[in-house]
Amino acid sequence: MAMLKKGAEKLxxxxxxxxxxxxxxxxxxxxxxxKLVRHMIDNGIVEGNGCILVAGAVGEFMAxxxxxxxxxxxxxxxxxxxxxxxxxNVADTxxxxxxxxxxxxxxxGAYCVQLSPPYYTPLSDxxxxxxxxxxxxxxxxxxxxxxNYWASQVYFDNIIGExxxxxxxxxxxxxxxxxxxxxxxxxxxxxxxxxxxxxxxxFGMWQYMIGMRGFCSQGAVYAPQVALREWEAxxxxxxxxxxxxxxxxxxxxxxxxxxxxxxxxxxxGGNTLKYASELLGLPAxxxxxxxxxxxxxxxREEIRQMLVQNGAL
Length: 313
What we know:
Layout: E1 13-17, H1 30-42, E2 50-54, H2 66-80, E3 86-89, H3 95-107, E4 112-115, H4 125-138, E5 142-146, H5 149-152, H6 160-164, E6 169-174, H7 179-189, E7 194-197, H8 206-209, E8 214-217, H9 219-222, H10 224-235, H11 239-262, H12 270-279, H13 297-309
Parallel strand pairs: 1-2, 1-8, 2-3, 3-4, 4-5, 5-6, 6-7, 7-8
Helix pairs in contact: 1-2, 2-3, 10-11, 11-13
């Protein structure tokens, strides 16, 4: 059996996908960011149970300048103080900006960086491999590759073997529209790098039986205890309990997200976290334009009921 690559071992459990709090004038709320990190740590998102992603798509990285992203990373890494593995998203259209953000993350104590495929201009498989190798050669910490096929139109299954050979590639934030490919990749490579499920458990328990090390969760930001119940069930291989938790939280959450889209609320997901966070008195603020739409009252009541029913409110 292959050994998990160095730098992958702490990536497991609940990957909390943090939103970026803004003030009402859309300025960064850095004090609010500290409070969110502290809230997650105080409620169990710590090394061994999970990790935290900062400034991802849900964190509206595409609406922030490189300097703002550095400021956000600094305060979050400082507040975490080594208690939980911190992942800093460094995606950008400019390779030099990516390297700058990656160096900054490493200097301030990030465990690894996250990097999606280049967006806007499609690349060939070889260009993608070269792209990730170029970034890897420049950084001193691990890299999580983000398989966001719905945004990038990159599926990775043809080149995962080559990507894993790159020194600093230690993890995949994994998703794929084809269930057979999704599971075949895990069977082949889950003992080499850390795979984190980015699919709201849509393939159920089987993925954890064959090597998935954890799952991404928006809800873990405002209601860590709910996500951690699922992780405890996974660790215990209590699939009946996990199924019950799916039905109680994940399925209603997916339906709620769908109802938001039907109401005309779109965006990267950060705005959905903010509606729930506000109900719990956590820092949120508006999403930055063009996604700064208020949540309709019907959907606010729906998420409030979900939080109550799951013991978070």
